Backbone:
């Protein structure tokens, strides 16, 4: 089954909290999300490179980190169900949000595939 994605750009709340942010995100948050949100099957984190500019000359993303969550399904309804399940898991305390996360810069987008992957 094709997979859609949830793409999350984020930052630590402060430079002093970056180590705690990374520990929490890698060791706790991803495990919580993949384990407690139906439909999310895999997650991978990245640190954005500030050393390489954009090919288009557009400004780089203001966030330092990226997480890509793979979602079973490829319809807007599947994405809406995951979004609602994630919100419910956060509200129920099954997915922890650390104070080391800068909520003000958090950017989340969902995407469905529009073609076959090329290799």
Residues:
């Amino acid at each position: 089954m094709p997979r859609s994605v949830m793409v999350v750009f984020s930052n630590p709340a402060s430079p002093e909290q970056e180590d705690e942010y990374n520990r929490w995100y890698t060791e706790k948050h991803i495990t919580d999300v993949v384990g407690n949100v139906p439909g999310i099957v895999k997650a991978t984190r990245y640190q954005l490179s500030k050393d390489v500019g954009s090919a288009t000359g557009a400004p780089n993303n203001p966030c330092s980190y990226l997480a890509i969550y793979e979602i079973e399904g490829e319809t807007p309804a599947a994405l809406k169900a995951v979004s609602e399940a994630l919100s419910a898991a956060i509200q129920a305390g099954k997915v922890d949000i650390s104070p080391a996360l800068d909520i003000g810069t958090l950017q989340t987008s969902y995407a469905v595939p529009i073609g076959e992957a090329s290799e």
Observations:
- The longest helix spans residues 18-36.
- The CA atoms of residues 1 and 73 lie 7 Å apart.
- Residues 3-111 form a domain with the Alpha-Beta Plaits fold (CATH 3.30.70.100).
